[in-house]
Task: inverse folding
C-alpha cells in the first residue's frame, strides 16, 4: 500500500507562489498517473491537475481555473510529484491532496488508488 505525504503549503499573499510536494513511501508511484486535488470546508474535493507516468509520456491535464498558473511535474528518481502554483488567488485557498488518479480528467473520490493523506493547507490572503 502506498502512503502519500503532502508538504509545502502555507500562507501567501495573492499573486504569490508555492510549490507543493507529494512524496510516496511503501511502494513506487512511478508507474501511476498522479493527481493533485483540493478541498475547501463544506465542498467536495475537486481535481486540480494530473500527470501521467513516464512510460505513458507524462501527459498533463489542468482544470481551467488553474491553467497557465499551476504546473505539475514529477521526479521519478525521488518518487515525488510536485505542484508549482504561481499567481495564487484567494479562491485557491484549500487543503491540497495528491493521489493516484485512475483517469486523466474525470474524478470522483472513488477514482483514486490509495487512501487519502493528511493534505497540506494553502491559504491565500487578499
Result:
Amino acid at each position: 500500500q502506498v502512503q502519500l505525504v503532502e508538504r509545502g503549503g502555507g500562507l501567501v499573499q495573492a499573486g504569490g507562489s508555492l510549490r507543493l510536494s507529494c512524496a510516496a513511501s511503501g511502494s513506487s508511484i512511478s508507474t501511476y498517473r498522479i493527481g493533485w486535488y483540493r478541498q475547501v470546508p463544506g465542498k467536495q474535493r475537486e481535481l486540480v491537475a494530473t500527470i501521467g507516468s513516464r512510460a505513458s509520456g507524462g501527459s498533463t491535464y489542468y482544470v481551467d481555473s488553474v491553467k497557465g498558473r499551476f504546473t505539475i511535474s514529477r521526479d521519478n528518481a525521488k518518487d515525488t510529484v510536485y505542484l508549482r502554483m504561481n499567481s495564487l488567488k484567494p479562491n485557491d485557498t484549500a487543503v491540497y491532496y495528491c493521489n493516484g488518479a485512475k483517469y486523466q480528467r474525470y474524478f470522483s473520490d472513488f477514482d483514486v488508488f490509495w487512501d487519502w493523506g493528511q493534505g497540506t493547507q494553502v491559504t491565500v490572503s487578499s
About this structure: The mean pLDDT is 95. DSSP finds no helices and ten strands in the chain. The first strand starts at residue 3 and ends at 7.
